[in-house]
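Morning run. Coffee first, then this:
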Amino acid sequence: MQRIDTINLFLQMTGCTDSKIMLYLTYFEFLITLYYLIATYASIIHFGQSVTIQLFTLLCMLIECVILLNITFRLYHQNHFREMHQYSRRLGIPDGYKLRINLITKYHLIASNIFISFPVTYVILHDSVSAGDPFTFPYLDVLPIRTDNLAIYACKYFVYAISVYIAHIELCFINTTFVYYVGVLKHRLESIVQTITEAFVDKDEQKFKYAIIQHQKLLTYFNTMKKVFAKPILLSMSFNAIYFGLTTSFVIQAIQGYINQVILSICIASSAAAVINITIYTFYGSVLLDLHDEILHVLFNNAFFYVNKSFKSSILIMMSRVTIPLKFTIGYIFTIDLNLLLKIVKMSYTVLNVLLSSETIKPHKLL
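And here it is:
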């Protein structure tokens, strides 16, 4: 199945499986991304370009920073990925999650191809290619080479394509693995709820103790999952906030007619992709909270007054544990749920309105 192939491919990139071939791809991505980061920095510092190109280069540099840090986090958490792999390979995920993982994979495949094909369309429509073209990634023009030559442009475009695909591979890796491990949690939680329900019906204390043991393993798995995904998600949230701020400046300049509309379109498309990523994290963070509450409902909705004292003690132990919600907290600041998404949308709308209504914004002509 496509889902199994996709997840197995990403797990091989973490080095937690016996196959180490895909792990070398991770090292390759790290080296290429490091080169891109250095190239963008050199382009901003040492080469005089228009403010439009410099701002766009800054956005590219931020993207490369995020990718580089995500790869670093993945290599650092190899042991944690291995622990989660050992726990999850014996379990399945709900059928609905298989479809969602497939959709996320296809989305990143389509989005990356769009970002690759759009520059070609732009060049064909304008029937010309020149140094500093907005869609050839500014840092590819670090050397003073004009791109009128088709072969030179093809090489530069190939390097540009690699950077785009690497970015979407990393985003797809985080999104699909996060959804997959949430699916593992959901499957295990549903199994625990069913075991508890059967234990109450049969008044089987041993079965209830088995549910307690499984819940303890689940909590350990969840804590490991937080260690693995907390940094990348916090990084993604921070990056999206900075990215939105820079994109907002593009919007203001474009409204007043001072910026390249084509660059604006690619920035808005990237911002839309960032919103999709945030939605994935916040939605499935809320799923974890709702699922854990089901255990509480089962415990409090079943009468246990006529069971023996030992059984009651086990029930109280379980109650004390499940009263602590499965909050996916990052940076000791944010809790990943739909409320966070609502706050981000409100903040973004407020910031944009303030900037648009401010009379202190006096943009200078960029083109």
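The longest strand covers residues 329-330. Good start to the day.
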